[in-house]
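Chapter review. Work through the record for Binding-protein-dependent transport systems inner membrane component before attempting the end-of-chapter questions.
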Amino acid sequence: MILPPFVGAIGVLHILGQYGALNAVLMHLGVLGPNDTIDWLGRGRMWGVIALNALHLYPILFLNLTAALANLDPAMEEAAENLGCTGFRKFRRITLPLIMPGLFAGGTIIFIFAFTELGVPLIFDLSRITSVQIFYGIKEIAGNPFPFALVAVMLVSTALLYAVSKLLFGRADNAMVSKATTVSNARTPGIAARWACTLGFAAITLAALLPHIGVILASVAGDWHHTVLPTGWTADHYRTALAHPLAVPSILNSLKYSSLATIFDLVLGVLVAYVVVRTTLPGRNLLDALAMLPLAAPGLVLAFGYISMTQDGRTFAFLNPSKDPTLLLVIAYAVRRLPYVVRSAAAGLQQTSVTLEEAAQNLGCPPLRALRRVTFPLIAANVLAGGLLAFAFAMLEVSDSLVLAQKQIHFPITKAIYELFQMMGEGRFVASALGVWAMVFLALTIFVTSRILGKKLGALFRV
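Structure tokens for Binding-protein-dependent transport systems inner membrane component:
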């Protein structure tokens, strides 16, 4: 979540590439001959894309499930145990249905994001991907209608898949009358279970850190070619990255764009979620689907659509990004990340019984005041989770940034990293160094937020 996936792909290339660290390890062990190499990504590009997307996106599900579990009243599980429902049956019959809104929210975003991902397949040179086909179609043939038809098919198929999944998993009545007021008792597993959990978490952590390790090593490498570790170490890449006129302004630009977009998403996302979950207005399901559509189209296509709308002589010509893309980038970031807040807020509302609002209104509390004093505090954890995701992924936005930011003074950090990556010679190493700076900044952002709201990151999502 703190590393742009296409930057992580650069790090993975240094490890799993044909002349990467893994082949060097196998040569040292005698498994491969001195002149033998295995192109791991060449043989398994699809699996590489899947793995990198999974490692990049699983925090979405983690944050949503953390919020859902934090809001789960332990008394319900205890009541089930008192009635003889224990173990996996308790999880399947009690816990899982109650956290299903969070599971549906995170799973939906992950599926659509992975379905439309562009950066990682491009870095891994995997062309048999819908988003890459759209990219090549627009890039190679001006006016070619095929990519736009492909986008239409993608939009329709994604909307249908979302509707089916919501029908199957997202419509159950999982609201709880009471919210969690106590923390569930910690369970002490047996020795075998503890070792299994430790090894499992260690394996997941190592796999998740692999792109970060690759980027960090590349950022301090004097040279890294066909060796286990870089043959030389240097901090010059960091100095070059920060001394470059693109670096600091791009970070400030990304902060500005992402912060404004997140504020917009928080306000509009909560309103949309409330209308969808709490009202019976006609068309609310259509509104829900429309709120998810920005994730269904590749950012590249949306960016070209924005450019087409803002050409001279058009209605929105005043937003032309060739002059100043600030407003257009904020709109693009906000629209692309709005589903994160909508899904997270909707999950919180689904877990919060409407009877609490009705009770407040019966006691004379006006609807808006009941929303502000009763409902919003109960879903604040979910809203914070969605806002954090919106901000982090806006900072890491690639497609809109590459297309809409056309002048150097307006470059966000991802566009700056891409421009540095294009440099001959040490370009990859300098781009990795700036990627590390971005990674550190986002990690500090999450850390500071967690310190404000609690000593543990999980406190972000506990009501």
